[in-house]
Specification:
Organism (chain B): Cohnella luojiensis
Main location (chain B): membrane
CATH architecture of the largest domain in chain A: Orthogonal Bundle
Oligomer: heterodimer
Mean pLDDT of chain B: 89
Largest interface: A-B, 111 and 100 residues
Largest sheet of chain A: 2 strands, antiparallel
Pfam families (chain B): BPD_transp_1 (PF00528)
Number of helices of chain A: 16
Radius of gyration of chain A: 27 Å
Shape of chain B: globular
CATH class of chain B: Mainly Alpha
Distance between the termini of chain A: 49 Å
Membrane topology (chain B): Multi-pass membrane protein
Helix content of chain B: over 70%
CATH topology of chain B: MetI-like fold
Number of strands of chain B: 0
Helix content of chain A: over 70%
Protein name (chain B): Carbohydrate ABC transporter permease
Low-confidence stretches of chain A: 1-23
CATH superfamily of the largest domain in chain A: MetI-like
CATH superfamily of chain B: MetI-like
Order of helices and strands of chain B: HHHHHHHHHHHHHH
Structural class of chain B: mainly alpha
Number of strands of chain A: 2
């Protein structure tokens, strides 16, 4: 024990000595730098704790952002080294690549529905669950959350049966039996139904981390707020929800919104599992499908990086808006 | 009296609707489970039936015999998935809890800059960084190794964020008392902080388990050998790809096997997860 103590003391002495002993030339900035240096040295242990995470985070998240941006200005097919071609990739993307423009449209159509609907559904269900007695909560939480932790690959066995295009598909079977349709509808081949099917499946899977955050936040709203509200004349549950509950879970709402933006713009898995790459007439082709197609099937890394940068900017841009909108007090 | 009666009717209707919706959400999973136990005759029955009549485990035996397009046995895929997932969860927990402690409790320079970077990385999907990650992995010469499928996923922003937020509420006085008693930072972390982080660790384990277990892309992109592929890819091979309905029984059995562990992990961790998520808030 005592050895630890003396260690700490000596290291402090060394630090203070090093500050004193080195001469100060120009008084302003270097001294500030030196103070920062001393501060960093004093927190050496903190940085040691951080090192493994920071190293991996830098190598696989920070550096890749800049590499992507750099590569997006180049022609790169992995075999030859990248060649700078300026804005050509972006010009090609937005002017000549009809499939990419279509993919943007499909992704937006998908995100505009799945994003808000999934978000509101998750919040309302979490609210409803927080209103019922604790002993029943777990059952409902499990029912709503479990779909989001299933793998899109594994669940495709169910969707392929549910939406099968012959009389054996469950939906077609009932539609024929009840006389809604006279012949089986090709849900997964018809260009008009591909996006709606993907939306339905994704909504089924959308009660994820955000839902849990809402649930936890809602269960922790202080009870006395509601009592104070009742004194101030709040009568109905919906008033309570609007004036007390929502403001007190705002941080969770923001966290959930950020994750929901990412979730709804990264649509890919479900589409690939249900309609494949490429989908019939590219009707289920999303930005991420396009990215995957160019990166790991055609190995045009420069072009694919440009797609990645566009998607990255879309996500960041959307989230900036969300922050502006939900983040203010 | 009348008012009380009406209240009860309303409440009953409310529970009826909520339960109906909950069961509707659960229905696809129930169908999956029931298909996994259906004998071949029932799988192709017309009219189609939702529930299994004569349950059998034949599909699971079939799964062990039938393999994809190659000679790799199904158990090999399970083994690969287990190794990769366990390493990602354990390694991720270790480096994230190590990093969460100073980020929440020390006042070193660049602390908020690092934290802001983590929050920033919540705002986009790691999928957009796949190309550079792939280039890094292939440059270091890690292709076709387990490391390639593990290392890029160790520093997970969502889990890291939750860990730091949770660690913030550890009382400062407690840490200070330990330091006065002569404990060094490592000891403070190991004896005090780590046990108190338990709910956040359980949450991290849940989220990183689900992510790693379900994600087909690491094995798809980072390995070219069939014997390095993971469970989701094996299931894709069995299914024969989008739109093909072949070997439904084995497909359902494999999918069933794949989903069970995620549900179990959630049931085990759920209490601690809700405790952690209470600290998940973001400030604008």
């Amino acid at each position: 024990m005592s050895s630890v103590n003396t260690d700490a003391v000596t290291s402090k002495q060394i630090v203070s000595k090093s500050i004193v002993s080195k001469s100060i030339r120009s008084p302003r900035i270097p001294s500030k730098l030196k103070l920062l240096g001393a501060d960093i040295k004093r927190h050496k242990v903190s940085y040691l704790f951080l090192a493994p995470f920071l190293l991996l985070f830098t190598l696989f998240t920070i550096v890749p952002i800049f590499t992507s941006i750099g590569l997006s200005f180049s022609y790169y097919n992995i075999i030859e080294s990248p060649r700078y071609i300026g804005l050509s990739n972006y010009r090609l993307l937005f002017v000549d690549d009809d499939i990419f423009l279509k993919a943007i449209g499909i992704t937006f159509k998908f995100a505009m529905i799945t994003g808000p609907v999934g978000y509101i559904m998750a919040f309302l269900l979490a609210w409803v669950i927080s209103q019922i007695p604790i002993k029943y909560r777990f059952f409902y939480t499990l029912c709503f959350y479990t779909p989001s932790i299933t793998s899109a690959t594994a669940m495709s066995v169910v969707w392929l049966y549910l939406f099968a295009g012959d009389r054996k598909g469950l939906i077609n079977y009932w539609a024929l039996k009840l006389g809604i349709n006279h012949e089986p509808y090709l849900f997964l081949q018809n260009v008009n139904s591909i996006v709606p099917v993907i939306i339905i499946v994704s909504l089924w899977m959308s009660m994820g981390i955000g839902f849990l955050a809402f649930l936890a936040g809602l269960q922790n709203v202080p009870k006395d707020l509601y009592e104070a509200g009742a004194i101030d004349g709040i009568k109905y549950r919906l008033q309570e929800l609007w004036y007390i509950t929502i403001p007190s879970v705002k941080p969770q709402l923001l966290f959930g919104a950020v994750l929901q933006v990412v979730f709804s713009l990264q649509v890919f898995d479900v589409s690939v599992q249900l309609v494949g790459i490429p989908s019939p007439l590219y009707a289920g082709h999303t930005i991420l499908t396009h990215l995957f197609d160019y990166a790991f099937i055609k190995f045009e890394m420069g072009y694919a990086s440009a797609i990645a940068v566009v998607l990255f900017l879309m996500m960041i841009g959307m989230n900036r808006l969300i922050f502006k909108w939900l983040g203010r007090d | 009296m009348v008012k009380g009666m009406r209240m009860d009717w309303g409440r009953m209707l409310f529970y009826l609707l909520l339960t109906a919706f909950a069961l509707l959400m659960l229905a696809p999973l129930v169908y999956l489970a029931s298909s996994a136990f259906k004998p071949t005759a029932e799988l192709f029955l017309f009219p189609p039936r939702f529930f299994v009549m004569n349950p059998t485990t034949k599909n699971f035996y079939q799964l062990l015999l039938v393999t994809g397009t190659s000679f790799v046995p199904f158990t090999r895929y399970i083994f690969n998935s287990l190794i990769v997932t366990t390493a990602i969860v354990a390694g991720g927990i270790f480096i994230s809890s190590l990093a969460a402690y100073p980020l929440a409790k020390h006042k070193m320079p660049f602390r908020s800059a690092i934290f802001n970077m983590i929050v920033f990385s919540l705002m986009f999907s790691p999928m957009v960084l796949q190309i550079p990650q792939y280039l890094v992995i292939s440059r270091i010469g890690l292709m076709n190794t387990y490391f390639a499928q593990i290392i890029p996923y160790l520093a997970a922003p969502v889990g890291m964020f939750l860990m730091v937020q949770f660690a913030r509420q550890i009382p400062e006085a407690l840490l200070e008392a330990a330091r006065i008693d002569g404990a060094n930072e490592w000891k403070v972390f190991w004896v005090l902080v780590l046990p108190m982080l338990q709910p956040a660790i359980a949450t991290f384990a849940l989220f990183s388990f689900i992510q790693a277990w379900n994600d087909p892309y690491p094995a798809m992109v980072y390995s070219t050998h069939e014997d390095m592929k993971s469970l989701p890819i094996a299931i894709q091979t069995i299914s024969g790809g989008a739109g093909v309905v072949a070997r439904v029984g084995t497909f359902a059995a494999a999918s069933f096997l794949m989903i069970i562990p995620t549900i179990l992990v959630f049931i085990i961790t759920q209490r601690m997860v809700l405790q952690t998520m209470a600290h998940s808030g973001l400030k604008g």
